[in-house]
Amino acid sequence: MENQSKKEIMLERMKEKKQEVRIVRRIVSVIALILLLVIGIAGFRTYYFVSGALKPVDPDADNVVNITVPIGSNLDSISRLLEENGLVKDARVYKYYVKFNNQAEFQAGDYGLQPSMTLDEITESLKTGKVYREPLFNITFPEGLTIEEIAENVIAKKTKYTADEFIAKMNDKAYIEELMAEHPELLTEEILGEDIRYPLEGYLYPATYPFYEKDPSLTLIIEQMVAATESNVMQYKAVLDDMKKTPHWFLTFASLLEEEATAQSDRQTIASVFYNRLEEDMPLQTDPTVIYAMGEHKKRLFNKDYEFDHPYSTYKNKGLPPGPIASAGSSSMQAVIDPAKTEYFYFLADSEGTNHFAKTYEEHLANQRKYIGN
């Protein structure tokens, strides 16, 4: 009887375990089914969201939405602009759509677009530059100009404002702080450094700007230029973050290349010279910084000029100057990010502006005798 009881107990336990196994299997099956449903629902929602975002915002709309694509705008900013104005449903979807179709060459300008337009139609309009109105006039700001040169050679000649009025705006602390609040990633405290001559030096992007009113305000002119600088600089933000460098450093470096070079290949090679010198803790010894420090327009420097002691002089100080010495264009910016790989430490320009590079000081002296004569 005792043995029988033990057998019955064992059988009962086996039944219980089988029952537990069946319950566990059911639970696992239910969980798996729930997971599949969740994944399926998420996938369906993603598909529904993306497919919806690829369609016109309002197929029946007949109103025109006027937008302005600033000079220097990148795909991110244009996508956000379209979403903010109700022309696409989602900026991210539109950005990836354009990238997938390899159609990112957009033109700056004013556009009249409709919410009923397809993504293809919007993209084609932005590519062809079809604008709904013509600008009253354009103002061209050449590359390589300083704040003072912009005031004298562009503002005073192309607008109703005097050079002094423009310079006063450049020194208006309250206005500079307003701009800093509007562009916090670009305009940092570095522009207010003790040795900085003008906070916005190097931050006014050189380009041709269209204007749609007869007498645009100084603030409109300046803010368009700062916005264009931001668009151009921020496309390199990830790279600069990896380099642990700031936009101020970037624009300062680019301004040196703008003042020293004429061809893109020269910019990249000169950039390599500067990088090589910085790595070896050598002064950059670039003449445009001395000219900027002296505040004079000089075609040639003499020995006594190199002794001029000033924070901007890269003959008297190692490293980059406190800030940009001119407005750099896209070619100079690109050269900072993508310099040539060389072993050059020296270069000089001959009477025709052609640059000659050297690895050693002896080679540099030989180039001086050959191309300059002293």
From TrEMBL:
Keywords attached to this entry: Cell membrane, Cell wall biogenesis/degradation, Lyase, Membrane, Transmembrane, Transmembrane helix
UniProt-recorded Gene Ontology molecular function terms: lytic endotransglycosylase activity
Gene Ontology terms describing biological process: cell wall organization; peptidoglycan biosynthetic process
Coiled-coil positions: none
GO CC terms, sorted: plasma membrane
EC id: 4.2.2.29
Membrane topology: Single-pass membrane protein
Broad enzyme group: lyase
Intracellular or extracellular location(s): Cell membrane
PANTHER family the UniProt entry points to: ENDOLYTIC MUREIN TRANSGLYCOSYLASE (PTHR30518:SF2)
Protein name as catalogued: Endolytic murein transglycosylase
Organism: Planomicrobium soli
Organism placement in taxonomy: Bacteria, Bacillati, Bacillota, Bacilli, Bacillales
The gene coding this protein: mltG
